[in-house]
Write a structure and sequence with these properties.
heterodimer, A: alpha/beta, TIM Barrel, 9-stranded parallel beta sheet, about 45% helix, about 15% strand, B: alpha/beta, Rossmann fold, about 20% strand, binds pyridoxal-5'-phosphate
Chain lengths: ~280, ~400
């Protein structure tokens, strides 16, 4: 069983949904970003998405775009992203929290999918969520990911209808990520009704757990998603808390890291307050 | 190098690939829409009524066919090849962009879309899109980098007069790449009612093939016109390349004529030995951006680097995927011209032929100035004059130190 499978099995046994937290690797700098990463599980994150900053994040709204720019400006690279994960596994001894790399395919393509997968797995990464690699192009990565024991979490959207879903699910492992709104990150939120309808629809096609993201900002929204899905994914709102902790020169104020953790704790409380059958 | 195919004109394959290039690297949200678009385009392509309407608009509204003009004074000055100019700058709206836009906006109508978005660099594609949207009464939003808004101010005013909304984009270097990012972001949120009218042979499949098909009218006309004028096919074709649509439109109908030498000219900005250029085929490597795999300017990790060109329409770190394939197949030569060379060419055409060319097209001419003198006098050379320079007048007047 992969770390992701184990984590969802555990969540099921605990009769609750999970909280997936997104941060951009290297935002606002490598050191602070690592401090955040290290403390995420204690703050209440069940799975971690680590964004690989990219110059042209076509599916991201202003918050995550700017986070990527801060990270790149501070010198973030693919190697340093792997280093962060390696250090996390070694220093925290946390062998249960899955870490997924999230981002855009070009960074993987440049290194070569085979080499990228080997290096990612060796660093302690568990899988990928790639915004611009739909099933039509997924053959480029899937065999190498599988060979390295990495899960590929594919995205489904409100536009992914019942005819198309099986084609997406064919390449999905670990869990399925339902993008709950039409749009880029951090702009709109879905209604609880829409989330329920889509999650039920997806579950008719797969036994994989379903995570739901895009537009979750409050503990109440996280709880609403937790009532219907196996995990709630929060990104932009966390990044906004990172940004709120920067001074006018873009340097981290002392309250940045604790502020992010306090916010994540509130989200986790929201998710954990929902008892599942 | 892969072995040469029987024909260079059969691509892409059913998955939108030209060799390893092209494809559909887009968010899942867009994927079903792109599949719909492909289906709708294939149906329209085979529908005589659609083709008839397009043909009518191209001739009665846009003014096609554009002349193939023998540039006698330019030919004499350069003292080599016999130079013809394909006068696509005479089209309504002032460039080749209208050829593609009329096709796409007709398709948008046919698909029942109620809003059109576009990205633009020089503003020529934006103006063409705003024009077609005015004609068809569809709301239009054009994304344009804020640097380009500044340097192509006349086109911004034109778009607004035509009723389009111009959204300046301030991310990155605030040029064409960033405009395309924001157009794609808009599209992800609005895809159910919005048609994204891409201005060049880039983006996810089917755009590179569809835009090419709409632009092929250029090369098809040249074939007929040169036969009438000279009784034979041309020897040399030259066109500038931003994303590569005017070049592909001229080149594609000749790809299977081995006697025709074909040359694409990228923007070398301040020089290929500097970091400030936009020559993705010469200075880049294959990568994935804006929905397709193609040559890109990028660093070792795959972060996209900023392009530079004096010409807003060529200021793009990528290139259409079919060009990447044609480069690898060795069918088309790709060279480059610097800012300074383009400015010199611009002035030459103004004074010799009384034609003010777009700065984009001036890059093609800059290469003709190098190439033509090395060719025999019976070498028939066709340069695609993709646009007129009206939009560049303020920028050039300043650069040339003119008081206006
Ligand atoms: C006159 C003109 N020529 C050429 C280009 C470059 O585009 P493409 O390479 O797609 O023809 C532009 C783009 O704005 C243009 O306005």
């Amino acid at each position: 069983m992969s770390r992701i499978q184990k984590r969802f099995a555990q969540l099921k046994a605990d009769k609750r949904a999970g909280l997936v937290t997104y941060i951009t690797a290297g935002d606002p700098d490598t050191d602070i970003s690592y401090q955040i990463l290290k403390g995420l599980p204690a703050a209440g994150a069940d799975l971690i998405e680590l964004g690989m900053p990219f110059t042209d994040p076509m599916a991201d709204g202003p918050s995550i775009q700017l986070a990527g720019q801060r990270a790149l400006k501070a010198g973030m690279t693919v190697d340093k992203t792997f280093d962060m994960v390696r250090r996390f596994r070694k220093e925290t001894g946390d062998n249960g929290t899955p870490i997924l790399l999230m981002g855009y395919f070009n960074l993987i393509y440049q290194r070569g999918p085979e080499r990228f997968c080997k290096e990612a797995a060796a660093a302690g990464v568990d899988g990928f969520i790639l915004v611009d690699l739909p099933p039509e192009e997924a053959d480029e990565l899937k065999p190498f990911a599988t060979a390295s024991g990495l899960d590929t979490v594919l995205l489904t959207a409100p536009t992914t209808d019942d005819v198309r879903l099986p084609a997406v699910l064919k390449y999905a492992s670990g869990f399925v990520y339902f993008v709950s709104v039409l749009g880029i990150t951090g702009t709109k939120s879905a209604t609880e009704d829409a989330v329920r309808t889509h999650v039920e629809r997806i579950k008719r096609h797969t036994t994989l757990p379903v995570g739901v993201g895009f537009g979750i900002r409050t503990p109440e929204q996280a709880a609403a998603v937790a009532r219907h899905a196996d995990a709630a994914v929060v990104g932009t709102a966390i990044i906004d808390h990172v940004k709120a902790g920067l001074d006018d020169k873009g340097k981290a104020k002392p309250e940045l890291v604790p502020g992010v953790f306090a916010y994540i704790k509130a989200l986790a409380d929201g998710v954990r307050g929902v008892r599942k059958a | 190098m892969p072995s040469a195919p029987n024909s260079f004109r059969t691509g892409p394959d059913e998955r939108g690939h030209f060799g390893i290039f092209g494809g559909r690297y887009v968010a899942e949200t867009l994927m079903p829409l792109i599949l719909d678009l492909e289906k709708a385009y294939n149906e329209a392509k085979a529908d005589p009524q659609f083709q008839g309407e397009l043909k009518y608009l191209l001739s009665q509204y846009a003014g096609r066919p554009s002349p193939l003009y023998y540039a006698k004074r330019l030919t004499e000055k350069l003292g080599g090849a016999k130079i013809y100019l394909k006068r696509d700058e005479l089209n309504h709206t002032g460039s080749h962009k209208i050829n593609n836009v009329l096709g796409q906006v007709l398709l948008a109508k046919r698909m029942g879309k109620t809003r059109v978005i576009a990205e633009t660099g020089a503003g020529q594609h934006g103006v063409a899109t705003a024009t077609a949207c005015a004609l068809f009464d569809i709301p239009c939003v054009v994304f344009m980098g804020s640097v380009d808004v500044e340097r192509q101010a006349p086109n911004v005013a034109r778009m607004k007069m035509l009723g389009a909304e111009v959204r300046p984009v301030t991310a990155g270097a605030s040029t064409l790449k960033d405009a395309m990012n924001d157009a794609l972001r808009d599209w992800v949120a609005t895809c159910e009612n919005t048609f994204y009218c891409i201005g060049t042979v880039a983006g996810p499949h089917p755009y590179p093939a569809m835009v090419r098909d709409f632009q092929c009218v250029i090369g098809e006309e040249v074939r007929k016109q040169i036969m009438e004028a000279e009784g034979r096919l041309p020897d040399t074709l030259v066109a500038c390349i931003g994303g590569g649509s005017n070049a592909m439109g001229l080149f594609h109908p000749f790809l299977d004529d081995p006697g025709v030498r074909i040359v694409g000219v990228e923007a070398a900005g301040r020089g290929l030995d500097t970091e400030e250029h936009a020559a993705s085929l010469t200075g880049g490597r294959p990568g994935v951006l804006h929905g397709n795999r193609t040559y890109l300017l990028q660093d070792g990790d795959g972060q996209i680097t900023e392009a530079h060109s004096i010409s807003a329409g060529l200021d793009y770190p990528g290139i259409g995927p079919e060009h990447s394939w044609l480069k690898e197949m060795g069918r088309v030569e790709y060279v480059s011209a610097t800012d300074d060379e383009a400015v010199e060419a611009f002035q030459l055409l103004c004074k010799l032929e009384g034609i003010i060319p777009a700065l984009e097209s001036s890059h093609g001419l800059a290469h003709v100035m190098r190439l033509a003198p090395t060719l025999p006098k019976d070498n028939l050379l066709v340069l695609n004059l993709s646009g007129r320079g009206d939009k560049d007048v303020p920028q050039m007047a300043e650069r040339l130190g003119m008081k206006i």
